[in-house]
Structures are given as C-alpha cells and as structure tokens.
Design brief:
Layout lengths: L24 E4 L28 E7 L7 H14 L3 E7 L2 H13 L6 E5 H9 L7 H5 L7 H5 L2 E2 L2 E2 L2 E13 H7 L10 H11 L15 H10 L17 H15 L7 H4 L4 H6 L5 E5 L13 E4 L9 E10 L6 H13 L1 H10 L3 E2 L8 H4 L8 H5 L4 E2 L7 H16 L5 H16 L1
Parallel strand pairs: 2-3, 2-4, 10-12
Antiparallel strand pairs: 1-3, 4-10, 5-6, 7-8, 7-9, 7-10, 7-11
Amino acid sequence: MRAPLRGLVGIVATALIAGACTGAATTSVPTASTVAAPSNTAAASPSVAASPSAAPVSLTYFTFSAAPDHLKDLDAIVQAFQQKHPNITIQVQTASYDQYFTKLQTAVAGGTAPDAFELNYENFVTYASAGSLLDISGPSAANAAAYYPRAYSVFQSGGKQFGLPESFSDVLLFYNKDLFDQAGVAYPTTDWTWKDELAAAQKLTNPAKGIWGDFQPVQFFEFYKVLAQNGGTFFNADASSATFNDAKGVAAAQWLIDKANKYKVMPTAAQLGGKDDTALFASGKLAMWHNGIWQFSGLKTAAFKWDVQLEPGNVQKAHHFFANAIVASSKTAHPQEAFEWLSFLTSSPEAVSTRLAASWELPAVADQSQFQSYLSQTPPANRKAVFDALANIVVPPVIVQESQLQDIVTKALAKAQLGQASVQDALNGAATQVNALLK
C-alpha cells in the first residue's frame, strides 16, 4: 500500500495531487498531537437520503490498493456484494499509486468522478474541504461501532462523516534473527529505546561483509514519527504554526541523519548503489529495518529467519498509523447504492475474510476475534505487535496542501543529510515555508 516508506534515503515525497493525466483503465468485474486538525468548514456536500432502488444501477469504483496484486481478491468481494445486491453492478477502475491521485483529480475537476473511490488519510482533507465527497453521516452512524474507533474518526471533517475506513497498517521494527544470532546480539524487546537500537546496530554492522545494522528512510513520514517518539509535536495546539523545528525536532532529525552520517550503521543512497532497502533486507544484508506490515507477504519465502517488534522510542513510543477510506463522490447519481458498497467493502464478513486471507493490509474493524486467522500465520511469529502498536499510534500531520508539506520537509532533511545546511537551519527554513502554507 505505502510507497512513501520504500524510497531511498533523502528521496523527495511524490506529489499526491498534481497536474492532469490520462483517464484510468477500466475493468469490468462480474491522535495524536502531531496532527493538523481537519478543517471545520468543509464545503457543503450532498448526503445519503434516497432509498435504494430495485432498478439496475451501475457504480464505478476507483482503486489504487488493489492493483496489481489484489485484483482477484477485489473481484471476490465484488461478486459477494453483487450476490446480495443483484441490481447493482460494480465497474472497477484501477491505477498505480504514483498515478492514482493525478487521475482522480482530473476526473473530479472534469465532472467525471467515479461514484466511489479510495482516499488515503493524507489526501482526505483536501477532498472533504472542496466539497467533493458525499456526506454519509446518517447511515454510517448506525454501524460506526463496527470500526476501529480511531480509523473511523479520522475520516470526519466539520463534524460530518465523509468516508468509511477500508484498511489500516502500521510500521514496526523488522529484524533478521540469523544476523542477530551470528553477532551474538539479543533480539529487540518492547523496552528498547533509540540507544538500544543504536548499540545493537553498531554490533551488527559489518562493512567487510556488506551487512548494515539499520535502515530508516530520512524523509517526512519517518521524521514526523520520530518527532513524536522524542516527545515533540509537528504543529502547535491549534495547528496554526509549525513547531517541528524546536529542540525536540532537531534532535529527532539528527537521530535519523546520524545513523548514516555519524554512526555509519545505515547505508546512504550512494552506498545502496541503486538497490532499495526492501531488496537489501530480503537479501539478508540488513539486520534491522523500519517498515510497514504490508511487507509481510513478500518476505514469506525469505531464506533467513526474521521477526518484528515494536519500534524503539526515545521518551515515548509512537507508531505510524496509515489508513485508507472508501468515499463516495458528492456528484454520484446513486448515493444510497454507493453507501451500500462502501459499507460492504469496509466491514462485511466477506470483505474481512478475503483481506486477511490475502494479507491485503488489515480491515479496520473493531472485532478482534476476526483476526485469529491473521495472527496464526507465520512468519512473523510476533504478529501481535501489529495490534500492540495501536496503543501509541501517530497519524500524519495533514493540511490541505499536503503534498507541498511533505515535499518541503523531505527536501529540508535531504539538505541537512547532504551537509548543505545544519539540521537547525534546514528545519527553520522548512518551518518558514510550512507556516506560509498555513496562512
């Protein structure tokens, strides 16, 4: 699901809502204090009012998370939905993550928005504020308890519900047990701090064998999290001003940068030599890796033993919480039918079981008993950490100009890592630019 955490050190976050692009391919398928609060003045949007019709209805659904690996899984969910709603046909449109949001923006601006579509949390505020989303507050309230509360609430704006949480994922510390055993280093525990992580990484790094002790991208998504782990906040209390350039922010950024530049336990982009961190861990050359649970399926056949643990913190724990929602267009001609699809795709037993069997992220449902099949799968053995991490989640700071925010911060971090500016000066410059966006 998440491209942002797979990039090389110092990459610039991809703009999520940018210029025009060609239309999507169509396939017929029979909490945190670091968060900028969503606007309380979301544009007026139509709501679900009409009763479902027995007449034939065709709905378009646009997705990035299903393509290319989970189209068969989505097809199974669609088929189950259509069996229960024989008058509704779902037409699936797909696009890759790096093209999805430009295509979606073009469709919305051109008046050809799909009836229903996926939105990640980072882009939700932009679409809700623009009045592009259907208000589903009324019908969704009756089933709100079905969802993990935090996942449900983040897709509200101006006191209204504009989306249902489709899935969630978080980030953990992956570790190569074989490398730990060979170096005689104890495995990570829930009590580990940054100091423990660094001490282990120094023992595990072996340049002669091309083995690195640690990898954590130096970019926006990791910075806002380690800032929280250091007790800092991205914005002030009313989200009117950036605070990530204070002493806590500088120390957090320094932690990321020093692992490569000072302590030499993490490869730089040049040292990776074109190989990304996913390939590095999969090849058995990386001892610890900060990445998301979406990596589990790709590592099932790894030639070494590995597991996961909660990420170390400094003054406190903090874990990424990523969530996707399914929303409906405010322009849909079939609001009730669109809501029926949203609800089924996000909380039905058929959708939940399909996702879990396919390791297609995790459904954001509250009933933990539904996850027994997921928890019993190995590797990793410690899948319980996926849910333990929810006790201290931190969602991305979000503003309407989200892509600019991410770009500004990532560029500042890259500038500091390359020695073109001190960490303090780089973050000060980024804070000035971000504050201009907030005006």
